[in-house]
Amino acid sequence: MADKYIKVQAISGFGEYLPGEQIAFDKMRSLIEQVYRRYGFSPLETPAVERWEILTAKGGIERQIYSVGKPESMDSSQIELGLRFDLTVPLARFVAQYAGALTFPFRRYQIQPVWRGERPQQGRFRQFYQADIDIIGSGDLDPIYEAEILCVINDAFDSMEGVPEIKIHVSNRKILTGLCVDFGIAARAGELLREVDKAQRDGNRAVIAAIGEMLGQDEPTGFRETLEQLLDAVGSGLEELTELLEGRTQALDGVEELREVYEAAVKLGVPANRLVLDPTIARGLDYYTGTVYETFVQGYDKWGSICSGGRYDDLAGYFTTQRYPGVGVSIGLTRLVDLLMKNGMLETGRKSTADVLVTMQDRDRFLDRYLEIARGLRSAGVNTEVFPEDRRLMKQLGYGGRIGIPLAVIAGGDEFERGVAKVKNLETREEREIRLEELTEGIRGMLREKTQGV
């Protein structure tokens, strides 16, 4: 008999949440969205599926893209569609397609899932949510926007309860690419930066060794020593970086751009002690050209960056001749929530979105009265659930407590005759008697007290 049932289990890397966890996830998403809106970003959603030629235009990640199509057409030369692996490439396509209808600078936020075919591990998933913001210019884009992005990151994490202190690591890709130009190996800059991007995971020594092996006999004299000193300079000041790169004119151009962004961010209100100058940040995706960001939760660096991004000078260069520079970041919402849940820093006990449970003591006589109370509360914007089954009052209250509903309305023949209802706090067991005509305001007041910890 048991053989006829299909085994049920989640697919590795494709997470799903129990109700309490989903409520916590949605709250985090809402907090981030509120900050994005506060800075004037407009919402955008794009389809999960994009044309394969769009997704692979800039190369480098083809093996991680999930293809979409019929089984008989899975030959790589015939694949037409794929699931998006980030939200930036679809944004580039969107801007190129709808440029005539957009006003620049175009500020958008987008909170949607993306998919990558990689091996699941701590902090890495096959399906995960990203919470993106980008500011796109037409023709040019002032560097002040790069500083503003740092303000958004700072405020977004300040809005989240339970998140430990963060550090925002910031650099400029022109420091590393310029160093390659200064040493005459500009053609190798892309692969060298992808190797440097592994420093957080593998350590500086491993990266330096790998680069030495990569360059072999083509390695310029002094390059590896200078790069090693640069990678060891994480947390140094701007003056130290300037001194270290003395005479390296192209790399110093990147330092000066970094200085402009750093100083503007501090003037705009970002605490200087939250910013870490970090030359090891390279960002593996090739479309980044200037300022780059990575954000880490203190004490949990091994989880990787939970907010990354940077400046790109030609967002839609593969789709149009018009130049669209931009800057943006993405909060790895799924990674962040996973980190907080697994380390007990995110409250997941509440399993209902209801603030009030309307109980029934005499369903046959007063059903209409109970439904009227619920309708009035809902009309006033109070999330309300009715317990319509014929159960003992203690069973109803126990149900409400188990799923985290904070308040319960209790009324029977005696209460209705006197024109009152009892409102019980299911956590503290406190009970108040409130007149029916004042019930909504009374409940609102109790909910405010609970929120304020009174």
Indicate the low-confidence ranges by residue numbers. Answer: none
What is the tally of helical segments?
Answer: 16
The protein's oligomeric status is: single chain
Percent strand: 15-25%
Number of strands: 16
- The residue fraction in helices comes out at 25-40%
The CATH superfamily name of the largest domain is Bira Bifunctional Protein, Domain 2
CATH fold description of the largest domain: BirA Bifunctional Protein, domain 2
Strand order of the largest sheet: 1-5-6-11-10-9-7-8
Give the N-to-C terminal Cα separation: 57 Å
Topology:
Blueprint: H1 19-38, E1 42-43, E2 49-51, H2 52-55, E3 67-68, E4 81-83, H3 88-98, E5 106-115, E6 127-136, H4 144-158, E7 166-172, H5 173-182, H6 189-196, H7 199-202, H8 204-215, H9 223-231, H10 238-244, H11 249-267, E8 275-277, E9 291-297, E10 307-312, E11 326-332, H12 333-342, E12 356-358, H13 363-379, E13 384-386, H14 393-402, E14 407-410, H15 413-418, E15 420-425, E16 431-435, H16 439-452
Parallel strand pairs: 1-5, 7-8, 12-13, 12-14
Antiparallel strand pairs: 2-4, 3-4, 5-6, 6-11, 7-9, 9-10, 10-11, 14-15, 15-16
Helix pairs in contact: 1-4, 1-12, 4-11, 5-11, 8-9
